Amino acid sequence: MDEEVALESGAVLGTSVAEGEFQRFAESMDLDLDTKRMSAQELGEFEGLKRHVIRAMEQGRLVIDDKGQPVYTPKLGDTKPITFYEPDGAVLMSADKKKAGENVAKTYAAMGAMTKTSAQRFSDMKGRDLKVCQALYLLFLA
To answer: Model confidence at 10, in pLDDT bands (50, 70, 90)?
Structure first.
């Protein structure tokens, strides 16, 4: 069956193409995604993250740029595209500025640093967009 015909309703990119783009992202960012070495729990978590990312690619809201960086365009609210840059030590240190126990604030601070935006951008985001951004963040940390 032709890939275009096989697209689910609302999809703009076929699953096999999205899977290829996911792999290109992983290779470009040197992510360790060796599923054979993951525990059952790690594998389940990884598959959930990957599913969010692949679905966003299929819908055309997430693309991988020529540098292998994910660029996500939220569906709701502020729809300006967000580029996820490879995290460095400063990204991780940004979370240290939050108090102990403020885990969500720490995560959003790191996500803001990683995307060169702000933590507020993520706190204002609706769930459907936030879960994709959180999945990308967690894949970088895996």
So the answer is: low
